[in-house]
Design a protein that fits this description.
alpha+beta; Thrombin, subunit H; Pdz3 Domain; seven-stranded antiparallel beta sheet; globular
Length: about 475
């Protein structure tokens, strides 16, 4: 009997233990994994997610192709800053000049057009370009735009290596990129990183009319002083941005760099090439980002977009029906979540262009066609007239036949000369201006463009009809 009782107690104990064990197992199963390899667990979990089997990831990024392709098209830019007045010898401008700054530039055409940052060439009296093969050229400023920190230069050469435009809209965070430039005057330096973010506004550009556009591509590729104006490219060797700034407390690279997206660069370069100045289309609104606080304060039904705080009188926005309190959510059917995104998309258009603006009002979504205007409230393009009379000098273009006869590639004839800065420098009538600060002058329009960006003083070279050479220092 006692033996049976003992067996019964053992069975009961086993049963109770099993029940308690089952309860504990069910209760604490999430805290005690039943596997010993996290990697196997991850692989199993991914398999259950049903990921696209066609998705392929390269074994490793290949930087060599892009670096080899792009390096010859990234140039070193050196600027000098000369004295504003001449005393005795007009050549003292070049004897006295000291390096002012240096940076990088990117050849974007085979005939010598170069994109760089405005701050690289700002206030420069002379701009020298050095290629990766050590060729040297003097560059002229075709145009510049401080609101985007971009400038277009031109050197006189042909059959040059250049970089094809890519598409900055298609790049994504995590994508590999290369930064190529001349940090610390170290020519043709290549660094690699990934796209960290897009449409960053870091508050480094200023404009008295508040027209600056900051919509930077943020990367962790190493960029240092001297990289400004250099190329940011994808692994196909396509230009996706112009490196412009770093986030640092020391003045040197500290982890993040910022590039102007190429889709904005393309538009600005075309404007400067055609008109010599940027043609900005504007909505004419004052805006701020929508966040949780703004959404609550303004009783909005969205948490992402751009809140319109004011609509300027007579602006494109007012004429299309946009009002204060509206939330802009898309431009040309592309969603926008920040002021920097909105500014970039609108800045890609000229005055007179039509964009589709989508906004929310009182819980309803509305889309309108909006014809953009310039800062003066007009839908027309601003063109700069060619001046044929400057500081007492009457200027003329020279025919191709005459240029050929004189073995000149270009030049401007000073037909008549009255009192003014040209005459004060010692110049006489019938002088042919061929170079200013070592940069070739093609015609009167070209001379206008060159003088537009001159201040202080510059060196003029040329020839007279009898073949006599002339060099003059002009105080401007």
């Amino acid at each position: 009997m006692r033996r049976l009782l003992g067996i019964f107690v053992v069975i009961i104990s086993a049963f109770i233990g099993a029940v308690i064990g089952a309860i504990l197992t069910l209760r604490y199963v999430d805290g005690t994994p039943s596997y010993n390899s996290i990697e196997n667990r991850q692989n199993l979990a991914f398999a259950k997610m049903g990921l696209d089997s066609s998705r392929k990831v390269s074994i490793g990024p290949n930087f060599e192709y892009a670096a080899k392709l792009i390096t010859p098209a990234v140039v070193h830019i050196s600027t000098v800053y000369g004295p504003g007045e001449f005393s005795l010898n007009p050549l003292e401008l070049y004897y006295r000049q000291q390096p002012h700054s240096s940076g990088s530039g990117v050849l974007i055409s085979d005939d010598g057009y170069i994109v760089t940052n405005h701050h690289v060439i700002e206030d420069a009296t002379s701009i020298e370009v050095k290629m990766s093969n050590n060729q040297h050229f003097y560059a002229k400023v075709i145009g510049r735009d401080p609101t985007t920190d971009l400038a277009l230069l031109k050197i006189k050469a042909k059959n040059l290596p250049f970089i094809n435009y890519g598409n900055s809209d298609t790049i994504v965070p995590g994508e590999w990129v290369l930064a190529i430039g001349n940090p610390f005057d170290l020519n043709s330096t290549v660094t690699a990183g990934i796209v960290s973010a897009k449409a960053r506004n870091i508050g480094i550009l200023g404009d008295r009319n508040n027209l600056q556009v900051e919509s930077f591509i943020q990367t962790d590729a190493a960029v240092n002083p001297g990289n400004s104006g250099g190329a940011l490219v994808n692994l196909e060797g396509e230009l996706i941005g112009i490196n412009s700034a770093i986030a640092t407390a020391t003045g040197s690279y500290s982890g993040y760099s910022f590039a102007i997206p190429v889709n904005l660069v393309k538009k600005v370069m075309d404007d400067l090439l055609e008109f010599g100045q940027v043609q900005r289309g504007l909505l004419g609104v004052q805006i701020k980002d929508v966040d949780a606080t703004v959404a609550e304060d303004e009783s909005l039904d969205v948490f992402r977009g751009i809140f319109v705080t004011r609509v300027n009188e007579g602006s494109a926005a007012e004429q299309s029906g946009i009002k204060q309190g509206d939330v802009i959510t898309a431009i040309d059917n592309r969603e926008v979540g920040s002021t920097s995104e909105l500014q970039e998309l609108v800045a890609r258009h000229r005055p007179g262009h039509t964009v589709n603006v989508t906004y929310r009002r009182n819980g309803k979504e509305i889309s309108v066609k909006t014809i953009l205007k310039n800062s003066e409230g007009r839908e027309s393009i601003t063109r700069q007239d060619i001046q044929y009379r400057i500081e007492g000098a009457t200027l003329e273009d020279i025919s191709y036949a005459e240029l050929t006869k004189r073995s000149l590639d270009g030049g401007v004839l000073v037909r008549t000369l009255e009192n003014g800065k040209w005459k004060k420098a010692g110049m006489s009538e019938d002088f042919i201006i061929t170079h200013i600060d070592k940069v070739a002058v093609d015609n009167v329009e070209d001379l206008n463009r060159i003088l537009r960006y001159k201040s202080g003083g510059f060196l003029v070279e040329g020839t007279y009809g009898n073949g006599e050479k002339g060099v003059y220092g002009v105080s401007w």
